[in-house]
Design brief:
By secondary structure, this protein is mainly β. It is built from 2 helices and 8 strands. The chain has one domain. Helices cover 12% and strands 51% of the residues. The N and C termini lie far apart (57 Å).
């Protein structure tokens, strides 16, 4: 049986993507809710469909001025970004929700004060009824001198979106910004 395929384009809300800040939203209003909403709209799979995951994609491209990320340093940044998400929703044999696996790609050009840095992130997000896990390069920002910031490895989240564990370097998750690379 061929899996159902859904494609949706979403508009950015106007702030530089910060995956760790979005986890509570993702767990309550984002990918998981969209996936569960699609299940409701399209009907839950019957027992015969339980082994076939639903599939969908999201794409968002936007350009905007972000006045918040580097505000402590005293400047705004210009951002052009594209984010794509390819997800699969898995069900148990009884048709109940099992998990969502999403592959996320995020590419951005960020500039301020005559400087430009580039972000190119790819990671997998796994959403379960009891939490979530991100694995991959959630932040990979480069500038003229090489790597500006790198968050790579695995982050496990509790159902409420709080961090359960971290494996690998995650300076941005822990509060570091890339703004020093854009200082005048």
């Amino acid at each position: 049986m061929k899996p159902k395929t859904h494609s949706v384009t979403v508009k950015n809300t106007g702030a530089v993507r910060a995956p760790w800040k979005a986890v509570p939203r993702l767990l309550t209003r984002g990918t998981l809710v969209v996936a569960l909403g699609l299940m409701t709209v399209l009907g839950s799979p019957g027992t015969a469909q339980a082994a076939v995951p639903d599939h969908g994609t999201f794409a968002s491209t936007d350009s905007f001025v972000d006045t918040e990320t580097c505000a402590p340093e005293g400047f705004a940044i210009n951002v052009t970004q594209t984010e794509t998400r390819d997800f699969r929703i898995y069900f148990n044999r009884d048709g109940s929700f099992n998990k969502v696996i999403a592959h996320i790609t995020y590419v951005a050009t960020i500039s301020a004060n005559g400087h430009t840095i580039n972000e190119s992130d790819t990671w997998q997000a796994f959403f379960y009824p009891d939490g979530a896990t991100y694995a991959g390069n959630t932040v990979h920002i480069t500038g003229p001198g090489g790597i500006v910031q790198l968050d790579a490895g695995r982050i496990k989240f509790n159902p409420d979106g709080t961090v359960a564990s971290i494996s690998g370097p995650h300076p941005q998750l822990l509060g570091q910004t890339f703004c020093s690379a854009l200082l005048p």
